[in-house]
Amino acid sequence: MRIGSVSITHPITLAPMEEHTNYPFRIVCKQLGASLVCGERVDGSDVAKRDRRALKLLHTTSTEKPVVGQISGHDPHVMAEAARVVAHQGFSIVDLNFECPIRRLIGRGEGGALMANPPVIAKLVAAVVAAVDIPVTLKIRSGPDSEHETAPETARLAELAGASAVDVHARSVAQSYVGGPDWTVVARVKQSVKIPVFGSGGVREATDAIRFLKETGADGVAIGRGCLGNPWIFQQARALYQGGAVVAAPHPYERARVLLQLAEGEFDFYGNHLALKRLPRVACYFAKFLPDFASFRNEVQKVNSFQEFKRLIRQHFVQ
Ligand SMILES: Cc1cc2nc3c(=O)[nH]c(=O)nc-3n(C[C@H](O)[C@H](O)[C@H](O)COP(=O)(O)O)c2cc1C
Known about the structure:
Layout: E1 2-3, E2 6-7, E3 12-14, H1 23-31, E4 37-43, H2 44-48, H3 52-57, E5 67-72, H4 76-89, E6 93-97, H5 103-107, H6 118-131, E7 136-141, H7 151-160, E8 165-169, H8 184-192, E9 197-200, H9 206-216, E10 220-223, H10 232-241, H11 252-270, H12 272-287, H13 293-300, H14 306-317
Parallel strand pairs: 3-10, 4-5, 5-6, 6-7, 7-8, 8-9, 9-10
Antiparallel strand pairs: 1-2
Helix pairs in contact: 1-11, 4-6, 6-7, 7-8, 9-10, 11-12, 11-14, 12-13
Residues 15-18, 40-41, 70, 97, 99-100, 139, 169, 177, 200-203, 224-226 line the site of flavin mononucleotide.
């Protein structure tokens, strides 16, 4: 499948998630079979100013290509400049976020706030398309709330403005992350445009990903919370999609190996202080299956170095 000039080999992809889809996690998802990975949303105005923290979030290397960098904002000039930075950082695709439900963004008329105004979204898409040579995509919701389904119109206008693909989170902005997704909106978007349509919402198991593709007719599925602590979902869903044998749940050794790779990546990426702060949350996603999870959760809070973490993993995962 092609997204503008970018080819991807199968439709199982990683959805962007703030605080989660950093560079080390994306590498893990890629190695375990995601065809396309996406970095978390970064404020376009910070990116345009080349703010140090924003550029850190937009770190990428050729190892993870093809890779998507995502920005949000409401000013066409600022978004165009931010998109140039994303392209310059080495991302294969720039994605515009019109889905984020957090109050700070909504208050500024950005992210999900724009689902109430599809023509403004189209203008932003056009400005960014004119600014960069890489494909431009957009991430939307079903609409601002359950009464107003603006996704199909938004996708149509964005396609006319030059978007190369659209990704629909099958919940409204008002819903935030609560309540079940309505996959039928993805099917309606698919019927409205010719560009590839991706979707996300409620995929927890590999079989959900396949069901999502079948029921919606979407070209791709983006896996969100279902891959936290379980990046093997990409391998499993890819195998099901390609008609191969069912891939079994990973052995505890494999879980330990991947968790250690991710943790080491985070220590390299963030440095000791921040990596240690993040460690309990990251590790607990992977450790939930342990019979002695409660004691693991307790002990991981006290870890002071990567070496100590390795010892803890050996104790709990490798017996
Ligand atoms: C913690 C968290 C952070 C998220 N951050 C982003 C983000 O930065 N950009 C974005 O487009 N979507 C973001 N999303 C939405 C996901 O990409 C995805 O659409 C959604 O989680 C799909 O639903 P699911 O988790 O039920 O599968 C986030 C979701 C979660 C749970």
